[in-house]
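Throughout our pipeline, every protein is held as a single compact record rather than as scattered files. The record that follows is passed on verbatim for readers who wish to inspect the format:
___
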Amino acid sequence: MKTGARSPWVYLPVLILLAITVVPFFWMIVSSFKSLAELYSMPITWLPKVTTWANYKKVLFDSNIPRYFWNSTVVSLGSTIIALIFATPAAYGFSRFEFKGRGVWQTLILMSHLLPSAALIVPLYIFLGYLNLLNTLVGLILVYLVLTLPLSIWMLTGYFKSIPVELEEAAIIDGASRWGVLFRIMLPLSLPGIVVIFLYSFVATWNEFIFALSFANDSTVKTLPIGLAEFSTEYDTDWGAIMAASVIMSLPIAAIFLGLQKVFVGGMMSGAMKG
Protein backbone atom coordinates (compact mmCIF):
# COMPACT_ATOMS: atom_id res chain seq x y z
CA MET A 1 0.00 0.00 0.00
CA LYS A 2 1.41 3.38 -1.02
CA THR A 3 2.02 5.98 1.65
CA GLY A 4 0.81 8.74 -0.65
CA ALA A 5 3.99 10.81 -0.28
CA ARG A 6 4.00 13.74 -2.66
CA SER A 7 6.89 14.95 -4.73
CA PRO A 8 8.39 18.29 -3.63
CA TRP A 9 7.82 19.55 -7.19
CA VAL A 10 4.08 19.55 -6.51
CA TYR A 11 4.55 22.54 -4.21
CA LEU A 12 6.70 24.51 -6.66
CA PRO A 13 3.81 26.39 -8.34
CA VAL A 14 2.45 27.31 -4.90
CA LEU A 15 5.85 28.63 -3.81
CA ILE A 16 6.19 30.65 -7.01
CA LEU A 17 2.75 32.22 -6.57
CA LEU A 18 3.52 32.90 -2.91
CA ALA A 19 6.76 34.64 -3.86
CA ILE A 20 5.01 36.75 -6.52
CA THR A 21 2.45 37.81 -3.92
CA VAL A 22 4.62 38.31 -0.83
CA VAL A 23 7.92 39.65 -2.19
CA PRO A 24 6.54 42.98 -3.53
CA PHE A 25 4.70 43.60 -0.25
CA PHE A 26 7.85 42.72 1.73
CA TRP A 27 9.93 45.04 -0.47
CA MET A 28 7.44 47.87 0.05
CA ILE A 29 7.63 47.55 3.84
CA VAL A 30 11.43 47.24 3.91
CA SER A 31 11.92 50.18 1.55
CA SER A 32 9.74 52.40 3.71
CA PHE A 33 12.41 52.17 6.45
CA LYS A 34 15.35 52.95 4.15
CA SER A 35 16.97 56.30 3.52
CA LEU A 36 16.78 57.77 0.04
CA ALA A 37 20.51 57.18 -0.46
CA GLU A 38 20.18 53.50 0.40
CA LEU A 39 17.18 53.11 -1.91
CA TYR A 40 19.33 54.27 -4.84
CA SER A 41 22.47 52.40 -3.78
CA MET A 42 23.80 49.41 -5.73
CA PRO A 43 23.77 46.52 -5.17
CA ILE A 44 20.34 46.50 -3.59
CA THR A 45 19.92 45.44 0.04
CA TRP A 46 16.95 43.37 1.16
CA LEU A 47 17.09 44.75 4.69
CA PRO A 48 17.85 48.37 5.66
CA LYS A 49 21.38 48.96 6.94
CA VAL A 50 20.07 51.75 9.14
CA THR A 51 16.37 51.79 10.01
CA THR A 52 14.83 55.25 9.71
CA TRP A 53 11.35 56.57 10.44
CA ALA A 54 11.95 59.72 8.42
CA ASN A 55 9.72 58.57 5.57
CA TYR A 56 6.76 57.99 7.88
CA LYS A 57 7.38 61.31 9.63
CA LYS A 58 7.35 63.08 6.29
CA VAL A 59 4.18 61.32 5.16
CA LEU A 60 2.23 61.77 8.40
CA PHE A 61 3.35 65.25 9.46
CA ASP A 62 4.79 67.05 6.42
CA SER A 63 2.25 66.14 3.74
CA ASN A 64 -1.50 66.04 3.08
CA ILE A 65 -1.66 62.24 3.34
CA PRO A 66 -3.70 62.25 6.60
CA ARG A 67 -6.30 64.45 4.92
CA TYR A 68 -6.33 62.23 1.82
CA PHE A 69 -6.65 59.16 4.07
CA TRP A 70 -9.78 60.63 5.65
CA ASN A 71 -11.22 61.51 2.22
CA SER A 72 -10.60 57.97 0.93
CA THR A 73 -12.25 56.50 4.02
CA VAL A 74 -15.37 58.67 3.67
CA VAL A 75 -15.70 58.06 -0.07
CA SER A 76 -15.00 54.31 0.07
CA LEU A 77 -17.28 53.56 3.01
CA GLY A 78 -19.99 55.89 1.72
CA SER A 79 -20.09 54.44 -1.79
CA THR A 80 -19.84 50.85 -0.50
CA ILE A 81 -22.68 51.19 2.00
CA ILE A 82 -24.93 52.99 -0.49
CA ALA A 83 -24.13 50.38 -3.16
CA LEU A 84 -25.21 47.60 -0.77
CA ILE A 85 -28.39 49.47 0.16
CA PHE A 86 -29.43 49.78 -3.49
CA ALA A 87 -28.05 46.43 -4.66
CA THR A 88 -29.92 44.37 -2.05
CA PRO A 89 -33.54 45.05 -3.11
CA ALA A 90 -32.55 45.19 -6.79
CA ALA A 91 -30.85 41.79 -6.62
CA TYR A 92 -33.76 40.32 -4.67
CA GLY A 93 -36.18 41.52 -7.32
CA PHE A 94 -34.10 40.06 -10.15
CA SER A 95 -33.71 36.72 -8.36
CA ARG A 96 -37.29 36.16 -7.22
CA PHE A 97 -39.73 38.04 -9.48
CA GLU A 98 -40.67 37.47 -13.10
CA PHE A 99 -41.30 40.68 -15.01
CA LYS A 100 -41.10 41.85 -18.59
CA GLY A 101 -37.59 42.66 -19.73
CA ARG A 102 -35.87 41.16 -16.69
CA GLY A 103 -33.16 39.51 -18.77
CA VAL A 104 -32.61 42.68 -20.80
CA TRP A 105 -32.22 44.79 -17.66
CA GLN A 106 -29.77 42.31 -16.15
CA THR A 107 -27.72 42.34 -19.34
CA LEU A 108 -27.69 46.14 -19.46
CA ILE A 109 -26.58 46.35 -15.83
CA LEU A 110 -23.71 43.95 -16.46
CA MET A 111 -22.73 45.71 -19.70
CA SER A 112 -22.57 49.04 -17.90
CA HIS A 113 -19.86 47.58 -15.69
CA LEU A 114 -17.86 46.52 -18.75
CA LEU A 115 -17.61 50.06 -20.13
CA PRO A 116 -14.06 51.46 -19.91
CA SER A 117 -13.58 54.16 -17.31
CA ALA A 118 -12.23 56.60 -19.89
CA ALA A 119 -15.54 56.47 -21.79
CA LEU A 120 -17.43 57.61 -18.68
CA ILE A 121 -15.26 60.58 -17.70
CA VAL A 122 -16.83 63.20 -19.98
CA PRO A 123 -20.52 62.36 -19.34
CA LEU A 124 -19.89 62.05 -15.60
CA TYR A 125 -18.00 65.35 -15.58
CA ILE A 126 -20.93 67.08 -17.28
CA PHE A 127 -23.38 65.41 -14.90
CA LEU A 128 -21.45 66.44 -11.78
CA GLY A 129 -20.99 69.94 -13.14
CA TYR A 130 -24.74 70.27 -13.70
CA LEU A 131 -25.34 69.21 -10.08
CA ASN A 132 -22.53 71.48 -8.85
CA LEU A 133 -20.80 68.45 -7.29
CA LEU A 134 -17.36 68.70 -8.89
CA ASN A 135 -14.54 68.67 -6.34
CA THR A 136 -16.81 67.32 -3.61
CA LEU A 137 -16.80 64.07 -1.66
CA VAL A 138 -20.49 63.58 -2.45
CA GLY A 139 -19.68 63.79 -6.15
CA LEU A 140 -16.97 61.14 -5.82
CA ILE A 141 -19.37 58.86 -3.94
CA LEU A 142 -21.91 59.15 -6.76
CA VAL A 143 -19.22 58.45 -9.35
CA TYR A 144 -18.04 55.34 -7.52
CA LEU A 145 -21.60 54.06 -7.36
CA VAL A 146 -21.43 53.89 -11.15
CA LEU A 147 -18.28 51.82 -10.74
CA THR A 148 -19.45 49.35 -8.07
CA LEU A 149 -23.25 49.12 -8.17
CA PRO A 150 -23.69 47.09 -11.41
CA LEU A 151 -21.41 44.23 -10.39
CA SER A 152 -22.76 44.33 -6.82
CA ILE A 153 -26.29 43.75 -8.15
CA TRP A 154 -25.12 40.98 -10.47
CA MET A 155 -23.12 39.16 -7.77
CA LEU A 156 -25.81 39.45 -5.10
CA THR A 157 -28.45 38.20 -7.54
CA GLY A 158 -26.45 34.98 -7.91
CA TYR A 159 -26.25 34.52 -4.14
CA PHE A 160 -30.00 35.06 -3.74
CA LYS A 161 -30.75 32.53 -6.48
CA SER A 162 -28.72 29.89 -4.62
CA ILE A 163 -31.05 30.11 -1.59
CA PRO A 164 -33.98 27.62 -1.79
CA VAL A 165 -37.33 29.25 -2.52
CA GLU A 166 -38.97 26.87 -0.04
CA LEU A 167 -37.48 28.84 2.85
CA GLU A 168 -39.25 31.99 1.67
CA GLU A 169 -42.50 30.18 1.05
CA ALA A 170 -42.46 28.76 4.59
CA ALA A 171 -41.82 32.22 6.03
CA ILE A 172 -44.63 33.76 3.97
CA ILE A 173 -47.03 31.04 5.15
CA ASP A 174 -46.05 31.97 8.72
CA GLY A 175 -47.09 35.55 7.99
CA ALA A 176 -43.84 37.23 6.99
CA SER A 177 -43.94 40.03 4.43
CA ARG A 178 -41.60 40.26 1.46
CA TRP A 179 -39.45 42.79 3.31
CA GLY A 180 -39.46 40.51 6.34
CA VAL A 181 -38.31 37.60 4.18
CA LEU A 182 -35.56 39.75 2.71
CA PHE A 183 -34.16 41.01 6.00
CA ARG A 184 -34.77 37.95 8.22
CA ILE A 185 -33.97 35.11 5.82
CA MET A 186 -32.23 36.21 2.63
CA LEU A 187 -29.69 38.61 4.09
CA PRO A 188 -28.47 36.34 6.93
CA LEU A 189 -28.09 33.41 4.53
CA SER A 190 -26.31 35.64 2.01
CA LEU A 191 -23.83 37.04 4.52
CA PRO A 192 -20.76 35.51 2.78
CA GLY A 193 -21.87 37.08 -0.49
CA ILE A 194 -22.47 40.44 1.16
CA VAL A 195 -18.98 40.30 2.66
CA VAL A 196 -17.48 39.59 -0.77
CA ILE A 197 -19.40 42.49 -2.31
CA PHE A 198 -18.35 44.79 0.53
CA LEU A 199 -14.70 43.87 0.02
CA TYR A 200 -14.92 44.27 -3.74
CA SER A 201 -16.62 47.67 -3.56
CA PHE A 202 -14.36 49.03 -0.85
CA VAL A 203 -11.12 47.91 -2.49
CA ALA A 204 -12.25 49.13 -5.93
CA THR A 205 -12.99 52.63 -4.64
CA TRP A 206 -10.03 52.75 -2.24
CA ASN A 207 -7.53 52.09 -5.03
CA GLU A 208 -9.30 53.97 -7.85
CA PHE A 209 -7.19 56.62 -9.61
CA ILE A 210 -8.72 57.81 -12.90
CA PHE A 211 -12.03 59.15 -11.55
CA ALA A 212 -10.35 60.69 -8.51
CA LEU A 213 -7.85 62.46 -10.76
CA SER A 214 -10.61 63.75 -13.04
CA PHE A 215 -13.20 64.90 -10.50
CA ALA A 216 -11.15 65.85 -7.41
CA ASN A 217 -8.60 68.54 -8.22
CA ASP A 218 -8.93 70.41 -4.93
CA SER A 219 -6.56 69.36 -2.14
CA THR A 220 -9.50 69.19 0.30
CA VAL A 221 -11.13 66.30 -1.59
CA LYS A 222 -8.18 64.40 -3.08
CA THR A 223 -7.87 60.71 -2.20
CA LEU A 224 -4.87 58.55 -1.34
CA PRO A 225 -3.98 57.32 -4.86
CA ILE A 226 -3.69 60.96 -5.96
CA GLY A 227 -1.69 61.75 -2.82
CA LEU A 228 0.86 59.06 -3.64
CA ALA A 229 1.36 60.56 -7.08
CA GLU A 230 2.30 63.91 -5.49
CA PHE A 231 5.57 62.40 -4.24
CA SER A 232 6.66 61.97 -7.86
CA THR A 233 7.54 65.16 -9.73
CA GLU A 234 9.07 65.95 -13.09
CA TYR A 235 12.58 66.00 -11.66
CA ASP A 236 12.50 63.66 -8.69
CA THR A 237 10.66 60.73 -7.11
CA ASP A 238 10.69 60.26 -3.36
CA TRP A 239 10.49 56.47 -3.28
CA GLY A 240 10.87 56.30 0.49
CA ALA A 241 7.81 58.48 1.05
CA ILE A 242 5.87 56.59 -1.62
CA MET A 243 6.64 53.27 0.07
CA ALA A 244 5.70 54.61 3.51
CA ALA A 245 2.44 56.06 2.17
CA SER A 246 1.74 52.77 0.38
CA VAL A 247 2.14 50.85 3.64
CA ILE A 248 -0.29 53.24 5.36
CA MET A 249 -2.69 52.90 2.43
CA SER A 250 -2.55 49.09 2.68
CA LEU A 251 -3.40 48.94 6.39
CA PRO A 252 -7.20 49.43 6.12
CA ILE A 253 -7.47 46.81 3.38
CA ALA A 254 -5.49 44.31 5.44
CA ALA A 255 -7.54 45.10 8.55
CA ILE A 256 -10.84 44.63 6.71
CA PHE A 257 -9.74 41.32 5.20
CA LEU A 258 -8.56 40.02 8.57
CA GLY A 259 -11.66 41.27 10.36
CA LEU A 260 -14.14 39.80 7.88
CA GLN A 261 -12.25 36.57 7.19
CA LYS A 262 -14.00 34.66 9.98
CA VAL A 263 -17.41 35.86 8.81
CA PHE A 264 -16.70 34.80 5.25
CA VAL A 265 -15.17 31.41 6.05
CA GLY A 266 -17.68 30.71 8.83
CA GLY A 267 -20.60 31.48 6.55
CA MET A 268 -19.23 29.24 3.82
CA MET A 269 -18.66 26.37 6.27
CA SER A 270 -22.15 26.77 7.73
CA GLY A 271 -23.70 26.76 4.28
CA ALA A 272 -21.77 23.64 3.31
CA MET A 273 -22.88 21.74 6.42
CA LYS A 274 -26.52 22.76 5.97
CA GLY A 275 -26.36 21.74 2.33
